[in-house]
Amino acid sequence: MKVKDIPQMERPRERLIEYGKENLSNEELLSIILKSGNGKKSVKEISLDLLNEFGGIENLKDATKEQLQKIKGIGLVQALTILSVIEIGKRIFVNASSKDKMILNTSSSIYQYMKYQLLDKKQEYFYCLYLNTKKELIERKLLFMGTVNRSVVHPREVFKHAYLCSASGIVCIHNHPSGDVLPSQEDIRLTNSLVELGYVNGIPILDHIIMGNDQYYSFYEEGKIINL
Length: 228
Fold this sequence. Notes:
- By secondary structure, the chain is an alpha+beta fold.
- The chain has helices at 12-19, 26-34, 43-54, 65-69, 76-96, 107-118, 155-164, 185-201, and strands at residues 125-131, 137-145, 169-175, 205-211, 216-218.
- The chain folds into two domains: 3-96, DNA polymerase, domain 1 (Orthogonal Bundle); 107-218, Cytidine Deaminase, domain 2 (3-Layer(aba) Sandwich).
- 41% of the residues lie in helices and 14% in strands.
- It has a five-stranded mixed beta sheet with strand order 2-1-3-4-5, with helices on both faces.
- Strand 4 and strand 5 form a beta hairpin.
- Helix 2 (26-34) packs across helix 3.
- The chain is elongated and about 65 Å long.
């Protein structure tokens, strides 16, 4: 059945207008996001297939473009729309969870803040968190993707953003897709290089955290950085 063949007051958009967003099912909300079906399935059927494939709405938070496009009826535009909606929701949740500026003054609090951002990633991501003197988050910046080493992590980018947002300290974070959080020799060399440059620039590297599967390694906690 196509949406146009559904009685008007049973259509997702009309139900949203009449009853409010909080009274719509997950399937109906997804139908509004997807907008239309294809020649074989209605948008509501595709929405149900999507929920069944992921085992519930909560599992969509880590969906990838490729996973979404494997579902018949979901093309590139619809997959990107879903990913955009999910990301907006994440950002709203993070901002709403703290009306004041987020304080990141321990390695564990930084890990909790970043763990869902890096969960199940298949390649390395290198982030910098820029903090003020009170260890409040000013800005989070994804600087590099791929194998993290000194040849791709350009110190000028790390410190350029620090100057732009008037940061007083920097926390570097990257993930190990293997799940093993022990630093490689290249991780150690990179960290030492950034720490030295932090002293020169007057904006210290407060910590470098490596994240894996439900665990992390903190250069600060291991006594490799004396700052925080």
